[in-house]
Amino acid sequence: MSVRPANRDDLAGAAAVLAEAFRGDPWFSWLYPADVTFDENARAWFGLVLERAFPHGHTYLTAAGDGATNWIPPEVHFPGEDDVARAVGLLSEQIGERAQTALGVIGQAGAAFPDTPRFHCVYVGVRPAIQGRGIGRALLGRVLEVCDRDGIPASLTSTNDANLALYRSIGFVEIAEVAIPDTGRFMRPMWREPRG
Length: 196
Known about the structure:
The chain is an alpha+beta fold. The protein has one domain (3-192): Gcn5-related N-acetyltransferase (GNAT) (Aminopeptidase, 3-Layer(aba) Sandwich). The protein has helices spanning 11-21, 26-31, 35-53, 81-95, 98-111, 135-150, 164-169, and strands spanning 3-5, 59-62, 67-72, 119-126, 154-158, 173-174, 178-180, 185-192. Strands 1, 2, 3, 4, 5, 6, 7 and 8 form an eight-stranded mixed β-sheet that branches. Strand 2 and strand 3 form a beta hairpin. The longest helix is centred in the first third of the chain and has 19 residues, at 35-53. The protein is globular and about 45 Å long.
């Protein structure tokens, strides 16, 4: 599976792939419950995150452009104050007063991680029609190889229990549960120690 670094011209396409991949995800279904606006809102959200994270490197696509991931390296503090302000503004436009609840949940998930330098996977997604073929594993592997080589931990937050088997199989373990409001479902911050 060929995985390449993204360039800035790839970001809109990557946001569209992520929006498609996360349709039906418990967290994003709570965040954007109206099907009629889901695609537009999700593309805008992923577009904002990718745009803000892109300068820090470690955004990758499959060669065919049907999967995307973004990582934040250990030496970078993300999100910064300006990133948070933009996220608050976008979510407030999209979902009104519910934005404060959403940001609180995101904050709880982030607070579960140790204050330890690490690579953090912000998002990884694959078009639904081709999920289950090892593409997500290949996307994640691009950075996990660096983690193992250099002895660096990794983290991510799973928002869909359907993905836990994949994450566990490559060394991630759950370290917390954060309730997704009114759903009985959870975000699960996960941690991975380097292998090797």
